[in-house]
Structure formats: structure tokens, C-alpha cells
Amino acid sequence: MIRFPIGLAAVCLTMSAIAAEPFDDKFRQLDELLPTPTSIRTASGAPGHAYWQQRADYAIRATLDEGRRAITGTETITYHNNSPDTLSYLWVQLDQNIYKRDSDARMTATLPSRDAWAKARGPEDGYKFDALRAVLEKSTFDGGFKIAGVKDAGGRPLHTVINRTMMRIDLPQPLKPGAKLAFSIDWSYNINEQKVLGGRSGYEKFDEDKNDLFEIAQWFPRMAAYYDVMGWQHKQFLGTGEFTLEFGDYDVQLTVPADHIVAGTGELQNPGDVLTAGQRQRLEQARTATKPVIIVTQAEAEAKEKTRAAGTKTWHFRAKNVRDFAWASSRKFIWDAQGFKKDSTNVLAQSFYPKEGNPLWEKYSTAAVIHTIAEYNKYSLDYPYPVAISVNGPVGGMEYPMICFNGPRPTKDKKTGELTYSSRTKYGLISVVIHEVGHNYFPMIVNSDERQWTWMDEGLNSFLQYLAEQAWEEHYPQSRGEPRVIVDYMKSANQVPIMTNSESIAALGYNAYAKPTAALIVLRETILGRELFDFAFREYAQRWKFKRPTPADFFRTMEDASGTDLDWFWRGWFYTTDHVDVSVDGITEYTVGTKDPEIEKAWKKAQRDAEPISITDQRNKGTLPRRVDAHPELKDFYNEHDEFTVTNHDRNKYNEAIEELEDWEKNLLKEGKHLYLVDFSNLGGLVTPLVLEITLASGKKYIERIPAEVWRYAPKKITKLIMTDEPMVALTQDPYWETADTDVSNNSWPRKAMPSRLELYKTQHDKDNLMKEFNEKLKTKDDAEKAVTPKSE
Question: What is the pTM of this model?
Fold first, then answer.
């Protein structure tokens, strides 16, 4: 044991108690968090010379059994091992197994809270009819893949092991680098009713005309991704983390009822077998049309709703270099299309929808598809595929290569049959079409790992969606985008960083969509500026199209192409839950002393005269007799002069001092600048540029932008020198609310009162009157109808 003298021990304890907090370097580099660059993924964020990527080609034959609401299929997968590794087994995704009764998704589901279940305060947080219905249906629905066989190219069975939503295929001979392997899988499954069981696909039944509409996705066993960062990406499918897949060519033949219309990924190979001569003619006309052409009319669709054609037809599609295939089928479909051609893009934009979608869908869907491609091409890459399809059905919004499922429809009045739609429905449709078609770029082409990082597809796509919405019309109603929209979430409790695995994200919509969108808008508008940002973002899309980027590749590319160190930005916005809250704490005004006694003593006198008159002097004025007023002979030199009187000694001293100055020093004394020391506090922890609106005495206003590096050496509190030509009368930090500052009440000097409203309510008397409620007349059905039927005049 070591002994200290008592005095030394006291000193040590005192020093320990007052030791400074460890310095929190908000600008330290991300090297400690990002993976080490390699010849596969370089330090610049670009793919390296050794970059590799697996490939999987598919030939699929499938049949839709409308009566049983089931699909049976067989597929041949040709797997190309482009990696430097020898593979002794392969992993295949069985996403439909999420519908098995004992799936992880179902077994791990919990309620938000006991109160939400048993003690709800109202409809907002109460348990819903459809939620309980789904729970009951899940316990009886026979879901999941039924694998009938897995065989090699010679028809010999391959050994497999199914681990919930993943299947391992053991290879008789290891698959060496550069080799390829073909094998087949026979399978079937029952299609879920989407509005009951939810999910990203399923069927919708229409009770009025007894028809179904099928939106089919995650419908065949798909190769799991194998890549340099993760090896096999075989995280279980739990429902939130979406899909990571390999690119390949697809040859798909779909056998459906003869009167169905089918929309699918890729180009239709046999229009002569499935379309009428008139429909084929309209389809050809649509390619050069300036507005959507109706391929299958509403009258044709309504006629088919009333009958059932005998037999089946097979629709044949081919798609090149895509990572997935989805389709939709129904006799209810109306179909319109319009071509769009610009630069290297030559696409047929199409929409498929039941009559329940009109008049909204025929007016806006295909127009929104074309608008999306035109706008996204500006900021990322030219759309490379031949078709882009929007389908209306039960799925609210979900994306696949060349095709997406979108939900909004008009409302039909049950009594009058009148079709109307709200502003929210109209713009909801346009926005969801933009968003889901936009996913063709991220992640269908820029192929990020959605199972791992949701923000890399949802966040980047939501950002481009915001730009496309801005280009649709002025004052487009925004739900995500502007940094000001995210402030309540940014200061809320129980957040997780954006860099959180997909299945562990709390508040998915805010975390994976809205916050990354706001971050990129701040980066574009406030930090980099549009020119630097747009160049860097497009460079990222060009570098990684048809490849699989990671977050590090995005971060490094944005820095490399913009020429800006942004490690502080990624660290704060993506790796922490800090928020922006800058407080303007205080301002002190200085002017440069001229040394001229005539000026300086006058300035000091003016400062003294500006001080408040004491209460004593106020009350003495005019009421207290003064002796020197009654006896003037008592006055002398000091009654006429005070410390502000300029003397010849002052003038001589000034002249001597001026003679010793150089010309530039003399000029500096005459500048007449106003200097202000402004204290800022970083209360939220997230460093940010300062955007200062300065108001001068003349009423002139101007903006001064100060980079975030102003916080580099003092991340919690700084003092900034502001210099003006005339007196400053006001200063506001973040005047346009562009930095997501969570408390604008402390952003101004002088402080501004924050307007609000006081709502008054009438006092309720005699509540919970059981006697009155007991004696209330029981209403009949006729009473209810009279209450809603207006009286005729």
C-alpha cells in the first residue's frame, strides 16, 4: 500500500474532482468504424480491380390455381461462382416460410404494451378488429413452401437442410471459382389473403363481383447472396429486413386462367398468344404516344368480371440482368401504357388496375411512372430496362425490378355509388408510385444489402422521391423531406442510430426513411451545395450500378467525389442519436477605438447618458432644492467641466501617438467597423454549420454561412466574431429551418416570443349519468337512416 502525505492526498483529491471532461472530438475520422479498404472495395469508395459478384439465372414454369389460390412451379437455377472461393454448399431463400405457423416472425411477435391490449384510451392506441383477425388466421393458414424435390442437372436428388426461411443445398462436388452449376427445385404454396395476413404480396378478393386480384412476389426459392463483406447473407427473413439477391437473366412462363391479364417483370414474348389483335395494336401505338393509351379498356375488364373463361393461357416473359421477378394477374385489370425515350432510356411505362382504381389511376399512375424515370435519371443513372409497371392491388407499396405494387384508390359511397378521392389519396398515389418506381434505381440496380441496411435503399430512394415531388408541382404536400419535419423525432427518446440492422430498427419510418432523407437534404443544401452534392451522388450511382455497395462505399464515394471531409457528418447523423440544437447565448458589441479624444470622450459620454436614470434622481428632479442653484457663487470650473471634457493635453497626446503610426495603421483606426462577439452553445450534441441571418440598423438583412468545422476545437461552446459596417440590431441562427434544429426558441437575439394558442373548453356537467343513459330510447335501423338522409325541400 502506498501512503501519501495528508496534504498531497488532499491535493490529489481536489485535482481529481475538478478534472476536465474528456474531449469529445466530433471530427475524428471514421477509420475506426469503416472496414479497411481492399482491392475489392477501395478507399475512394469505388469498386476495386478485384471486385467480383455472383450470378444466378432462372428458368421458371409456374401455374396459378385461382380456385385453390395456390401456385405450383418448377425452376432451374444456373449458379455462377464468380468468387475466388470454393463453395461446398449453397443457400437458398424460402421467404414464403414466414407464413408457417411456427415461423420466427410469428413466434417472436409481441404487443406494443399491455395497456394497448387491455386498457386502450381510444381507437388510436386500441387493439383493432383486423389485428385480432390476423392473429386467428395465422393460426390456421397453411402457409409456406412445400418443396417437392431438389435435383441436379442429371435429375439426381440433392441433399438439403431447411432452416426456417433458408435452405442449404449440399453439393456432391465443391463448386470451384469460375465454375457454374445448374439444379432444379419443384415447389408449391398457398397464397395469403393480403388484407388479412399482410405481407408484400398476396391476393385480394372482391365480394361484389366474386373475383380475385393476385400480386405475386417472393414466390419462388431464390438464391441467397454471397459476397466479400458478408459471405452468405442468410439472416432469417423476419419481415422488416428486405431482400438481397444476385443479378441474372430470367425466362418465366406463367399459366393462368384464360381471361386473366398478367403484368410481369421483363418483356412479354408471346403477345399473339394472350392478347387480341386490337390490344396488340394499341400496345404498339402506346410506344410512341404522348399520353397513355388504354390497352385493355374498363368496358372489356367489366365484361370479363361477369363470366369465367374456360381453360388457361401461358404468358411468357424474359428479363435480362435483374435481381428478382414479380407479377400480377387478374381478369379485372384495366391496362394503359405510354412510351418514354430520352438519352439511353427507352421504356414503356404501364399501369394495371381494377375499375375500383378509376378515375384516379387512369389519370395519374402512368404519368407518375414517366415523371419518376425522367427525374431519377437526372440525379443517378439512365433507366436501363424496357418496361416500368405500376399495379393497383392490396399491397400498399412494394417494389421489384420493372414492376411495383401500389395501393391508393378512390372511395365509393355505399349508398349513392359516387366515386371521390381526397387530396391525401391523390398525392398519396403519386408519391407511392414515385417511391416504388424509384426503387428500380435503389436497390434494384444499385444493389445494396437490404437485409442488413434498410436506409441504403429506403433512405436514398426517399431523398430522390422528395426531389421528384418538388418537380411535380409547386407546394407539393410533403410527408418526408424537409429537415424541419424530422425535429420531433430527432429529440425523442428511445431512438437508435440510422446505422442499425434492419430487424433492430425502432420507428422504421422515421429512422430508415425520413431521417436519412433529411440528412441528405442538409448535406445537399447547407453543407456541400447542389453542384458538389449532385456530382458526387451521381458518381455513386454510376460506380455501383449492377453491383452491391456497402455504407462505407457510399460514405467514401460522397467524400471522394465532392472533395470534402464529411466524416463528422456521417458520424453524427448516422452513427449517433445526437440532434441539432444550437443556442445563441449572448452578444457583446465592440467598435474600434479611434484614439481621437474628441470622438472617444463623446462616445463614453453617450454610453453614460444611455444608462438608466436612477429612481432617486427621477424623484428628486424638480422637487429637491439645490444649494448651488440658490448660491451661484459656489460654482467653479468643475461645475462646467467633467471627465468627458477634452483638454489640450488630450489633443497633444493624440497627435503624438498618430505621428508614430504607419499609414495602414491610421486607416485601420478610421474603418468604423462594428464588432460583435457572439456566444453559441451546442445543446443537442450534433455539430452543424451556422447559418446566420444578420439584421442591421438600416433594415438590411444578409446571410452569413459558417462551416461546421467552427466546432472542431470546442464542440460544446464557441465564440464567433461578427463584423458589420453598421450597428447590428438582430441575429437569427438557422432562419430557414434548414438544419433540423430541434428548438428554434433559442436561435435568436434578441429572443423572440413563440406564438401559440390557448384553447378554451366548455365545462361538462352531469357526466356519467347512468339514470339518463338507462332511460335513453333504443335507436332502430330506421332512426339511423333518417339521421343521415337529408330532408327534401
Answer: 0.91
